[in-house]
Amino acid sequence: MAKKTKGIHHITAIVGHPQENVDFYAGVLGLRMVKKTVNFDDPGTYHFYFGNEEGEPGTIITFFPWAGAHQGRIGDGQVETTAYAIPRESLSFWEKRLKQFDIPFTKKEKFGEQVIAFEDPHGLKLELVEREGGTPNKWEFAGITPDVGIKGFAGATLLSGLPYKTEELLEIMGLEKVGDEGELTRFSSSDEIGNIIDLKKAPSGIKGSMGVGTVHHIAWRAEDDEDQLDWKSYIESNGFGVTPVQDRNYFNSIYFREYGDILFEIATDPPGFAHDESVESLGTELKLPEQYEQYRSRLEKMLIPVEVRELK
User: Fold this and answer.
1) What domains can you pick out in the chain, each with its CATH number?
2) What is the pLDDT of residues 279-307, one digit of tens each?
3) Can you give the pTM of this predicted structure?
4) Which PROSITE patterns match (predicted)?
């Protein structure tokens, strides 16, 4: 039984102050906050989700914000860079926008594509990539319109402690090797969004450590619960230990750590983010899983108030 993932479902990272996180991803990048909830394993901490208008798989970046937490170190066993796809001819808009907010960036070409590289306020490495594929993001905020808005993930760059083993796994998961350039090998999946993975060919020699400014895990797409169980059996048959299915309210998840030490998740596309609030009101209220609803008043006092706001 061979299987093929469509590509990235979501990427989850650890950041610092929650309002700084909201200001950057909503206020600067123009992504929609599609869910404001809590960390299921640590309910005194937020879990934010940002994406396109409806929070579709392949557009979602999620965050655990800890104000005052220690800084992590990006290194082997982690996602090094998260890349976003922007429409053709929109690079100049983004250059001006980053300059407007005094965000340093560099321009480069990678695999024939025009790229802007920069960091978020907490040290996460990001890229904007001009790319044809993908549906325009209909969400409009802070002057960012569909003709220039972020469409979703372009992909991610992985740092592996054992790159040849990570390469084997990517191919087991159905990604196809499509190119080599410098220190990178490029892989592609079938979808138009979240479909490109660049793998560093050699270990960096620096072991990544979890903390602010690092990616916690990368999640891959499963069509539904049945497909996810097939993935669980398939990954286990290839020698990996996989967790039981975890209910994450907006998708179900399984996790495993690959031989290069990167934490992988496989998440279901359904049910999505509109099953506990309407599409029109996504991200406007604090949503709690059922087991924490009885503690709502206590949690609301513990959590730092945040708001989505336009920045000047």
Assistant:
1) 8-302 (3.10.180.10)
2) 999 999 999 999 999 999 999 999 999 99
3) 0.97
4) VOC (PS51819)
